[in-house]
Amino acid sequence: MKKYNVLLSVCIMSFILFVFYDTRIVRAFDDGAREIILSFRNEALNELVIAFTYVGDAKVLGALCIFSVIGLFLFREWLRGILLLASIALSYGLNLVLKSAFERERPLGNRLLEEDGFSFPSGNAMVGTSFYLFSAFLLYQKYPKPWILWIGTILPFFLGLSRVYVGVHYPSDILAGFSIGMAFFVCLAVIYKTFNANSREMQNNKNTYL
């Protein structure tokens, strides 16, 4: 569990760093990183990225989660289903609270999409990281193939980049979202492993008495 504690600490410290988005250092980072990302814009790529960015949309994530949870419940995978549902419900709820608390306005100009609401932290990055990474983790428990974890990691990363590319977020919004989303993933993974270990121990003790 030590590695999970270290990862959780890094996530929290990273989020705290980007909370100070009004400081000169973070503003300089935002301006520089945003300028580089926007420099890749062209007509063909714009259409592709606009389509891709909806992978992190609340409706898409909600639909994927509901279908996945129903499937897990049908196979009596109660713990997996409950935790997968939590990966979206809790992270989405906290994102709303954080956005209301910080009230950071979205970038002005250079938008390919129009979005309502506040900017910090990015909901797509935060909820997308929590859901896609934990989904990959659960799938990896059944089918231990490294490419599953790679997809679960790369998908939120490009999703975050796409939000800066379309002009609706600052890079610091995305990195803050990644940090909290990763923290949620770590907590859910620890809960899953703890319950699994306890369940196996109870089963072993039962078999011993029999």
Automatic annotation (TrEMBL):
Residues 79-189 form the Phosphatidic acid phosphatase type 2/haloperoxidase domain. The chain crosses the membrane at residues 52-75, 82-102, 122-140, 147-168, 174-192. It comes from the Bacteria. It comes from Fictibacillus arsenicus. The keyword Disulfide bond does not apply. SUPFAM superfamilies: Acid phosphatase/Vanadium-dependent haloperoxidase. Keywords: Membrane, Transmembrane, Transmembrane helix. PANTHER family: AT30094P (PTHR14969:SF13), SPHINGOSINE-1-PHOSPHATE PHOSPHOHYDROLASE (PTHR14969). The keyword Iron does not apply. It holds the Pfam family PAP2. SMART domains: acidPPc. InterPro entries: PAP2/HPO, PAP2/HPO_sf. This is Phosphatidic acid phosphatase type 2/haloperoxidase domain-containing protein.
